[in-house]
Amino acid sequence: MLPASTSQLGLTGGEPTLYGDGLLELLALIRSRLPDTAVHMLSNGRRFADAAFAERYAAVGNPRLMVGIPLFGPEPGRHDFVVQADGAFDETVTGILRLGERGQRIEIRVVLQKHTAPAIIEIAEFVARNLPFVEKVALMGLEVTGLAQANLDDVWVDPYDYRAELAEAALLLRHARVRTQIYNHPLCVLERQVRPLAVRSISDWKNEYLPACEPCGLRSECGGSSSLPGTAAASTLSRWLRSRIEASQPTRTCWSIGTTGSYSRSCNHAGSTR
Ligand code: SF4
User: Fold this and answer.
1) Residues with C-beta less than 6 Å from any ligand 1 atom
2) Which numeric CATH code is attached to 8-184?
3) From the first residue on, what is the mean pLDDT of each consecutive set of 10 residues in the chain (274 residues)?
4) Which pTM value belongs to this model?
């Protein structure tokens, strides 16, 4: 058994709710043995469409329990295609509503990949209009591991290509007073107005930095390119560098990036300070 001092506990699967009563018993046990532990469970949310199950989940009564539920589209077609299951969108959204009715803590996760990134603004609008009661929305860059790695051509999209839409979606959610965070993105690829929403979500030991990161003033706040797949990392950052730095012809050591996302020269070379 974990010590009572455990600060965080994550439950994932597969799909934890498939364990039904076994999951509810485990959650009740966690609540009694680890009352001060923050518990985060990943689920597709579909089982909560069953009002009786949602009621029993809520009855566990753990104020430190949050469920993270992925949403892959603003309508059934896109979401069901990504998860390859007809009817999944309706069940997931119904499940979120059932949990919301019962005051449960919900995080919506929007993983940005080739099939979801084009709809990021519509997904944000859907959440703002229909699910504004959720505790937070996490806009997440694709973690290229496992199945994503094996199907990279089918799922990969360069964050540089959706940066404007990501910024619009994040600001839309913020204006709707939905707490919003951005995960798994190099800071320089984000539009500067949404950089304060970025979470340094990659463990320090996983961080990778390209040579282009060497002079960057944001290095201590940024996970580097570790959220990008191998060759794509160099491509993504080099596109950013081409647009921001190489076009103005300073040497690499001339630039720093402020915490607000502004760039400034630290020497007297000619060039834009954007
Ligand atoms: S450390 Fe590298 S990836 Fe991060 S903001 Fe700087 S240049 Fe971009």
Assistant:
1) 186-188, 209, 212-213, 216, 218-219, 222, 224-225, 237
2) 3.20.20.70
3) 90 94 98 96 98 98 98 98 97 98 98 96 98 97 76 84 96 97 89 91 65 78 69 62 47 39 38 32
4) 0.83
